[in-house]
Amino acid sequence: MDQVTVLIPVWKPGEQFGTLLKRLSLQTVRPKRVLIMNTVEGDEDDQLSALVDTFRDRFEVLSVFHVEKKDFDHGGTRNLGFQFSDTQLVLCMTQDAIPAGSRLIEHLVRCFDDPKVAVAYGRQLAGKNCSAREAFTRRFNYPDQSMVKSGDDLETMGIKTFFCSDVCAMWRRDVYFELGGFEHPVIFNEDMILAGKLIESGWKIAYAADAAVWHSHNYSPARQMRRNFDLGVSQAQHPELFASYPSEGEGIRLVKQCAAYLVKSGKPGELFALAADSASKYLGYRLGKNYRRLPKRLIKRLTDNQSYWEKC
To answer: Does domain 4-214 have CATH number 3.90.550.10?
Structure first.
C-alpha cells in the first residue's frame, strides 16, 4: 500500500508552496499523483503555471484543477480532489505545510499496516518566527509521542479522540467514500467531522509524531475569534458527534498549561496576549455555538468564511 495521491487546495500560492513541492519530490515514498485544487477569482491570471511546470517532471502525475472562489468549499473542493484520485491512500495537505523530513509519507503509510486505521495525521511543528504561546499550542496539540485512537478512548480523551487535521492527514480512500467523504457545504472542521464518524463507525485514527510538517501562525485576536466562531458553528451543526464531548475543558487546560509555561520560560510578557487570544477564542466559540440566535448580518461579521454563508 505505497501508492499515494497528495491533494492540496491552494489560493494564490507563493514561494512557500514551491518549497512544499520540492520536498514532496524528495520523499522516500514519492507520491504517484499530486492534485492541486487551485482557487481563482474571476479572470485573474493563473500564477501557478510556471511553478507547476518547474516540478512537473518530478512526479508521475501533477495535475491542476481550477475552482472559482465563489465555489470553494473546505469539504466540497477536497471531495472533488478525492474523485480525481486513483490510489489507495490520499494525503491531504495545505499549501503552507512544509515537510520537515524526507520520510513524511513513509511514516504515514506505515500507520496503515493496522487494517483498522482509516486516517493518519502528522505532527505540526512551530516555525521560528511564531510566538511562544503558539509554539506551546503546537506542542500541546501535537506531542512527540505517536498514538492510535479508537472509540475505547472516548471516556478518557473526550473530544481529543476525534482530533485530526487536514494540514497533513492521510486517508484510506475506500473508507472515505464508504462514509460519504467530507461534508459539503461545510463552514470548517471537515476533517474532524469525518474523523468523528470514523470513530463512531469502529475505525481508528493514528497520530504519527515522526511524520512532521512545519506549520504555524501568529493570528490576531480578531482572527482567532472568527476561526473559533466557525468552529463553534460546525460543532453546533453536529450535536451527534460533539454534544457529549464539549471543547471547553480542553481549552481551559491548554490556557492554564500555556500560562505556566510562559512564566517558567521567562516570557511573562506574553501572558497579556494569551489572555486576549483566549478571550477572543472563547467569545467566538460561544457565539458560533449559538449562531442560530444571531442575525445573518452579524454572522457575516463574525465568520472567517464569508462564502459559506452566501451559499446558505
So the answer is: yes
Rounded distance between C-alpha atoms, residue 308 and residue 184, angstroms: 10
Q: Which residue has the higher pLDDT, 119 or 54?
A: 119
Residues whose CB falls within 8 Å of the CB of residue 122, separated by 6 or more in sequence, listed in order: 104, 107, 108, 167, 168, 169, 208, 211, 212, 213
Cell digits for 101? Answer: 523530513
Instruction: List the chain domain ranges.
Output: 4-214, 221-311
Kindly indicate the confidence band of residue 310, based on its pLDDT and cuts at 50, 70 and 90.
Answer: confident
**What pLDDT was estimated at residue 46?**
66
Task: Taking the CA atoms of 161, 164, 169 and 170 in sequence, report the sign of the dihedral they define.
Answer: positive
CA–CA gap between residue 214 and residue 20 (Å, rounded): 10
255-286 burial, b if ≥16 CB within 10 A, otherwise e?
Answer: beebbebbeeeebeebeebbeebbebbbbbbe
Q: Are the beta carbons of 87 and 3 closer than 8 angstroms?
A: yes
Q: Could you identify the residue written with the cell 446558505? A: 312
> Cβ(302)–Cβ(284) under 8 Å?
yes
- Tell me the C-alpha to C-alpha distance, in Å, between residue 220 and each of 205, 224, 227, 300: 31, 6, 11, 18
